[in-house]
Amino acid sequence: MKIASKNSQTESLSPACADASNRSNCNTPQELDAIKKNALERRKLAAFTRELIIIKAQCDAGLEPAISIAGTCFMSKRSHATVYRDIQKRILPQPIKIGRNSALPFAVVKAYAAGQLVGVAA
Q1: Helix residue spans in the chain (DSSP H)
Q2: Confidence (pLDDT) at 7
């Protein structure tokens, strides 16, 4: 059986590992890693989809939405470390705190993901 990953590459699994109920029959670490990676990507995508639904509702209400650092990473295809490094370099503005989470303005994140931010943030 083939599992499609985020990059549209496929990884082969033995038929015994394809069935979720028979995961104990998986013999190779590569097969287990492929299953774990696929599950992690699905969880990240589900969280980002929920966040986008909230952002759309805020935009429709005329508000300036904020997106989490994890959403920023997903949208810009950059790591947490790179995002925080760009905040230190003042390419991105300081994130606002919402409870214990950090968030950035959605308009800034869209420009960052498109590669339009190169200077010092305001």
Answers
A1: 15-18, 29-60, 69-76, 80-88, 106-113
A2: 47
